[in-house]
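cron nightly-structures :: item 1 of 1
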Amino acid sequence: MKILVLNPFAGDMRELERCRSVARPDTEIYCENIAAFYPLNYVTYMYYRHRCAEAVVERVMAAQEQGFDGVFISCCYDPGLMESREIVDIPVTAAFEAGVHYVNAIAQRYSVIATEPKTVHCYRELAQLYGTSAKLASVRHINLSARESYPESTPPDEVRSRVLEAARKCVEEDGAEAILIGCTVQSCPVTLAGAGSSASAPVIDPVLIGVKATEFLVDLRRAGLPIISRYGTWQKPPADELARLRRFREKAEPDFREAGVPHEGPPRKPASASPADMDN
């Protein structure tokens, strides 16, 4: 089994060690990022998420052509997940979807630890989209952006301390029975330190769950079982139109600064001033 772990932004790949720690012995793990197409090391903002999603879909399509059995998108914003599933036949998973379904299954109430106030809305919206919001106890943040969570900006011990303190509050104050870390960068120091619980409530690294979810779906596909419904939501687009769009994409990006500028016509003559205006 060959799985591509795709980091949907630039920056250091920190997933390989964690992924191999839970993958089956016969699973080959390949880690890549999309630095050639998206230069930033985080996707916090809505526009950033949009920009990286297209590159993710293109890489997922290429992965299928290269013989990968599945792709795991290692980011809790899940950029490009829905679009990729619409296009390819191999299993595609993403960090938040895999993680939130897992905590939803093992607990009656779960909480999510976000990076900063900006990202809280995303996890609430995704929980609603994935059908797990009924059990969502809370979304707390640690006031530390993903961009600032790399070791060169913030010591791993500081990241881990903030995550575990937020997890403690989720359990003691919000009634959570399981905690999902909402950032694959911030989950790394927690997992590598072996700090996977808070007051006996499990603190879940979505990267680990995403890898296992991908393996599971690959097994289902090999067994001849459906891994996605093509009726309705994930109906594939017409192949000829998809090919046309991809060819069109290869052209230079449009410059909208000149496109669609209305013709203003000849300059208008200024209205003659009235005596009253002249008095003013």
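cron nightly-structures :: done
Confidence is low (pLDDT under 50) at residues 259-268, 270-280.
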